[in-house]
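Hi R.,

Here's the chain you asked about this morning:
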Amino acid sequence: MKAHWVVSGASFDGFAWRGGETVRADTRMLAEATFGEPNFKAIWWLESALKAARSVARVKLAAGAATGFLVGPDLFLTNHHVFEDADDARSAKLQFNYRMLADGDLAERDEWECDPDDLFRTNPDLDYSLVRVKHKAGATPAEAWGFLDLRHGARVRENHRVNLIQHPQGRFQEIAFRDNQVKAVLDDTIQYLTDTDYGSSGSPVFDDWFNVVALHNQRVADPIDPFRWHRNQGYRVEAILADSGDLIP
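And here is the predicted structure, written out as tokens:
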């Protein structure tokens, strides 16, 4: 064992530099191959992401697809512009475990139906819709897939990092977690740099501890160039909880 490598991180003789200059932030402190803000994540972070992903479903619509997630044993949350009315929810299919496995095989998809006749609440101003999910064989969807607790009490701040688990363009489940800084926190919304695409509507916006802090709803145009998308935006869970009353546990 070259013990001095363990301590110093390299041969005393060093290695030849290759590939031109490296642009990095000047941290004014010694660091071992850490450029700018550290990117280290504990392994539990990956485990938490996989656990949270179980409650996120692809919403198969008559025309296209979107995203949504369980917020109670049989309560499903997505955007108002996904489920504008009860008929939209009634005709949709909620597809959990819609993902590709590491070996390239497809996971076994689990499909559920909405029951808007039992519960359907929508608010276009906050761009959310909440709907009951029909039970199957006497079981709720959360018995298989869990649900995401919105009453965690965590608060999001500017410069925090937020991560989206989503079905962009209706694809198999994906996560966006790089270049993901929060740039603005308003009364009802937050704006962030995390990537989304068509089909990401209704995705949960997670903080770095996988608390849901917002419901993703749209892109935001650059104030200088309206043809260039500048940020993404979601409605804060505090606003949705206040509006929905005690419907969400």
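One quick note: The first strand starts at residue 56 and ends at 60.

Cheers,
M.
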